[in-house]
Specification:
single chain, alpha+beta, OB fold (Dihydrolipoamide Acetyltransferase, E2P), seven-stranded antiparallel β-sheet, two-stranded antiparallel ribbon, 3 helices, 9 strands, globular, disordered C terminus
């Protein structure tokens, strides 16, 4: 009986301590202000996804990456090539054959997605800064938000280059 009693007291102690610790919600970090993200990016690109393909990660890890070709409608940049109407963006994750790499919290792009990307150049190519932090999916945004972002981008990265 002593063993059952000790077990019951221990279980009650855990339940009482658990109820005193407050909410069991996950810890959440506040998203960086968009103006700071724009200021740290090398390119800001507005366009849509034209195609995608999976590749093996160049580091030989056996992980899969996905490259997305974006048709650029509008671009502001602090550095990088000028005069391009397309850019290839790399994200971790994807599928080749039966090998699939999934990155929790990073939703893959779909062909046709309208995006605003804040990019930096890495050894793997152009990537959104902070992955999901540098991605704004315009398909999911209210109509009035693009004009606010346009003003912010113009001030942060300078002159625009608009493609027909």
């Amino acid at each position: 009986m002593l063993n059952h009693r000790s077990l019951l007291l221990g279980l009650m102690a855990v339940l009482v301590l658990g109820s005193l610790t407050g909410s069991s919600d996950a810890y959440q970090v506040e998203r960086a202000p968009w103006s700071e993200l724009v200021a740290t990016s090398e390119r800001a690109v507005h366009g849509h996804v034209a195609s995608s393909w999976g590749e093996w990660a160049p580091d030989g890890s056996g992980r899969v990456i996905t490259r997305y070709e974006l048709l650029i409608w509008d671009e502001r940049q602090a550095a990088g090539p000028v005069g391009m109407d397309r850019v290839v963006v790399t994200l971790p994750g994807g599928q080749i054959g039966n090998r699939r790499t999934v990155i929790p919290g990073l939703k893959p792009f779909e062909v046709g997605d309208e995006l605003l990307l804040l990019l930096s150049h890495t050894p793997w190519g152009w990537q959104p800064i902070g992955y999901d932090l540098g991605i704004l999916r315009l398909n999911d945004q209210p109509a009035g938000q693009w004009s606010e972002l346009e003003t912010l981008l113009r001030g942060a990265l300078g002159q625009a280059r608009v493609h027909p």
